[in-house]
Design brief:
alpha+beta; HIT family, subunit A; 5-stranded antiparallel sheet; 5 strands; 21% helix; globular; binds guanosine-5'-monophosphate
Length: 116
């Protein structure tokens, strides 16, 4: 079994979070320390520590996460301008080892600035 993280506890309802969307495969919450006016996290219910730990069996789930991310951005009213970020590995700032997509919007992002 993959390691429990704060996100599995949030998904299990053991820790409170501001849930903005949920379906059979994923949950979206507001980031507790937002780096932009809109900062949401799209988290699969299945624990996959990092993007590079996903495998062929996760193909449909990864597609689902992308489509859900568009829906969630639309629901948040930021569909005209938002950025999606996945941090893979501590070296680029991943702190929670349960795959998640950051949705960031509502501030200027420079072309060169890939992080937040
Ligand atoms: P990472 O750095 O792993 O890509 O992103 C983890 C994100 O999770 C960070 O932006 C951090 O603020 C957020 N985060 C960490 N703990 C919690 C929590 O308990 N609740 C919520 N809502 N967000 C959290």
């Amino acid at each position: 079994m993959a390691t429990e993280t704060i996100f599995s506890k949030i998904i299990a309802g053991e820790i409170p979070a501001d849930i903005v969307y949920q379906d059979e495969h994923c949950v979206a919450i507001k980031d507790v320390a937002p780096k932009a006016p809109t900062h949401l996290l799209v988290i699969p219910r299945k624990v996959i520590p990092r993007l590079c730990d996903a495998s062929e069996e996760d193909r449909a789930l990864l597609g689902h996460l992308m489509l859900a991310t568009g829906d969630i951005a639309r629901q948040a009213g930021v569909e005209e301008a938002f950025r999606v970020i996945i941090n893979n590995g501590a070296g680029v700032g991943q702190t929670v080892f349960h795959l998640h997509l950051h949705i960031l919007a509502g501030k200027e992002f420079s072309e060169a600035q890939l992080g937040f």
